[in-house]
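Form 7-S
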Amino acid sequence: MPAELEQISIDIKQLIATYGKERNALMPILHELEKKYHQIPDHAMQVIADMMGIHAVEVQDVVTFFHFYNMEQKGTFIIRMCKDMPCQMQEAKKLADQLEQKLGIKFGETTADGKFTLEWTSCIGMCDQGPAMLINEQPYTKVKPEEVSNILEKYRKENK
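Output:
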């Protein structure tokens, strides 16, 4: 077993020891794996299912239903913007254009250095404070396009 797959299995075992094998533990376990690996690989879904005594398709159903879990590798910092109408009416398009320009990628892409991924998502619960975005779990509200450079610079300096 390759080293990364072995480490994922060890991590899952530790997470199950922390959260338990009950079904309500599935999302916290997936959340922790997503934070560490920036994805939920197929192998991890099978290991979780085996250790929790459920079918792998049940784990996959959760991973594919929620936008914040990824089956493919994403950037260290995932920038999510709401694509729903209230946010779009608050000049989210200008903010999105600025993000694409500063990162040199389009939505749905990851920077070559693996640091940033841009994603559209459904409501992030901040329509009254738009335009808004999430960078991983950190919300940014009422963001002006001219603030993008400073926000991105903060994350570029982080060593993750």
